[in-house]
Design a protein that fits this description.
The complex is a heterotrimer of chains A (250), B (269) and C (249).
Chain A: E1 3-4, E2 11-12, E3 17-20, E4 24-25, E5 29-32, E6 35-38, E7 42-47, E8 50-55, E9 67-75, E10 79-83, E11 90-93, H1 94-97, E12 118-126, E13 132-135, E14 150-153, H2 159-163, H3 168-177, E15 180-183, E16 188-192, H4 196-212, H5 218-235
Parallel strand pairs in A: 4-8, 11-13
Antiparallel strand pairs in A: 1-3, 2-7, 3-6, 5-6, 7-8, 9-10, 9-12, 10-11, 12-13, 14-16, 15-16
Helix pairs in contact in A: 3-4, 3-5, 4-5
Chain B: H1 3-20, E1 36-40, E2 48-54, E3 57-68, E4 79-86, H2 101-116, E5 126-128, E6 132-144, H3 149-162, E7 165-172, E8 177-186, E9 194-201, E10 204-207, H4 211-216, E11 219-225, E12 231-237, H5 244-268
Parallel strand pairs in B: 4-6
Antiparallel strand pairs in B: 1-2, 2-3, 3-6, 5-6, 7-8, 9-10, 9-11, 11-12
Chain C: E1 29-33, E2 41-47, E3 50-61, E4 74-81, H1 96-109, E5 121-131, H2 136-150, E6 160-167, E7 170-173, H3 177-182, E8 185-192, E9 197-207, H4 209-247
Parallel strand pairs in C: 4-5
Antiparallel strand pairs in C: 1-2, 2-3, 3-5, 6-7, 6-8, 8-9
Helix pairs in contact in C: 1-2, 2-4
Classes of the chains: A alpha+beta (250), B alpha+beta (269), C alpha+beta (249).
Chain lengths: 250, 269, 249
Amino acid sequence: MRKVFVKSRELVVPGTLLAQGPFKAGRGTFKEGSRIYSTVVGLVDVRGDLVRVIPLEGPYMPEVGDSVIGKVVDVKFSGWTVDIGAPYQASLRVQDATEERIDLMKTDLRKIFDIGDVIYAKIKGYNEVNQIDLMTKGMPFRGGPLRGGQIVEVTPSKVPRLIGKGGSMITMIKKLTNTRIIVGQNGWVWISGPNDELERLAIAAIMKVNRESHTQGLTDRVKEFIMGHLRELKERGVIEEVPSEGGEES
Amino acid sequence: MSDQEVMASIMRDHIMNLLREGKRIDGRGFEDYREIEIKTNVIEKAEGSAWVKLGDTQVLVGIKVDVGEPFPDLPESGVMTTNVELVPLASPTFEPGPPDENAIELARVVDRGIRESHAIDLEKLVISPGKLVRVVFIDVHVLDHGGNLLDASGIAAMAALMTTKVPRVEYNEETGELTKLDEYDPLPINHIPVPVTFAKIGTAMLVDPSLDEEMVMDGRLTITTDETGHVSAAQKGESGSFKLEEVMYALDTAVEKGNYVREIIKRSL
Amino acid sequence: MMGRPEGLKLIDENGRRIDGRKKYELRPISMEVNVLKNADGSAYVEWGKNKILAAVYGPREIHPKHLQRPDRGILRVRYNMAPFSVEDRKKPGPDRRSVEISKVIRGALEPALILEMFPRTAVDIFIEVLQADAGTRVAGIAAASLALADAGIPMRDIVSACAAGKIDGEIVLDLNKDEDNYGEADVPLAIMPMKNDITLLQMDGYLTREEFMEAVRLAIKGAKAVYQKQREALKRKYLAVAEEVAGNE
């Protein structure tokens, strides 16, 4: 028997029976016998024989290759401890931090990254004992520290929506608000703008995406939202010109 | 994994394999208690006491009877309180210090079983209504933890209560003077509640779990019944879950095994 | 059970209870998820006069290390009553009752959680009883399950809970404070509704075997009704956004 009990993109809660039969239980589900149930609050996604639920909330689970934003919480003898919002703290070893050869006896590692610094790193390794290794070497902005700006958090599962198809959503927000934005796959987003108002507007747009990620027609609504505020900012003399709607392609 | 956890997981496989063949690790049937040994009046300084051995588990209960004020909302009733000490001498896992959650849960389930069946006739323990009543302290001292502390404590508490002697007193309402006499009355007992504990391992329900069985059990269920077949306490403990049919089975079995244990208590007096 | 005022009747000649409810009727219940900013998940439940807040933090690495389990995360529960939650001020901090309730709530929720995904971590649940009117542990479990789902902690099911009891000789659903004080028994229960697995069962009182089973069955029915409200509360948060968005177009 092969049966799916829910519609695609249907909102489900933990314990909901999703499908029965020769399906594979993807993320956000568990299998018991031939039945697949949801384990989270989220949207159902059935592709071929894979049943999964895209969570609307939940902790960040690292995957090798992810680019993340993190905050340095400790400086050790030969590396750093970094909070990336995962259940486990991550480590960055000095040889993964920079191309330069560092003499540990002579170098104060705090000069590279200090406690409180915001970094942009790649997940280099994540093993079965939950050791997370980061790498900033070869990352854009040399991995940081990212100066100024602010960090906001979105639900990690909503990052793809925030980036949009081919980067469409985030590019639009950046262009229209004239801000620099780095989205970590851990849901941490770094934003730096030319002034407070535009920075706040970009953050508001990002949080709107986070809140309404499960709804239709989001890109247009976000654009409208930003444009409305931009016109207001122009009237108040904060900005000189409202950029053209599409923004220019980079 | 730590050594202890490796051991637990090996032990679980071993126990589960035996259970599939219908056997328990110590050869008992699923509904069998380990040997129960009861000695009463073992502490002369206490008004009542009982030393209970349940397999490898040993507990000592002492009863102290004092006088004190009744609760304001229950002026015509004596007071009972139950306390459990899991002293470090009884197990490498017990730590010195104030009662932890295990000791507190244990004490409260034993207490509810006795209190709710009105096992002690507290209304007969009033010296002066609203002013002075008897206070019965049930203190459980666990001496050796071999599993199923709850049933051992419940059995010991009842055996101790049933042998408790209360000194007669003379109370002068005018002067408030209280004199202890050298005469004793037995503590008035109405019912004999007995807790029966089940461990669920896989789908098996085991009466009176040993320590090995407790280490690997999924969940625990205790049901206390008295000689009239009434239930006076129930407690699902630890993790795991039970089906309605399993609760029904436990209830019927608790009445039956409760009768068996009650006879042993009575014979010990 | 407390000394009962003379002449107090908990069920009147029309079969109505002191708050006007029928025998098998729940008190009014309202639930809301995501009510706190700092917590990873949270929920607020009003159940009769009970007002209960639950928050979840984690999974997060725990120290000291000896508390860690290499094969799974652990669950920690703290049930706490505010000093002003009851008629006579309660001394702040854990008493014996709160310690026991915290422990049985942990046992009620643990079977539903898939903590094998988070070795060496802890999930912390904090249940704050802001106002108490009997049945706080079952209301606390309902709130805690919602907070866990809101935190995105993977679960096999949403744990639901309800109590049944005996007042004036009759088995009824969901006792309020007076019924709990002057009644004959209280049977709080929690279930994983999908497969009717009982994860919390306690009894305080004196019942025949038949009455006990009747109370258990009734509490299961009550918990299933509560479960429907939990599902609605979880979905409402997202459906409300979707509706609001649609409404603006």
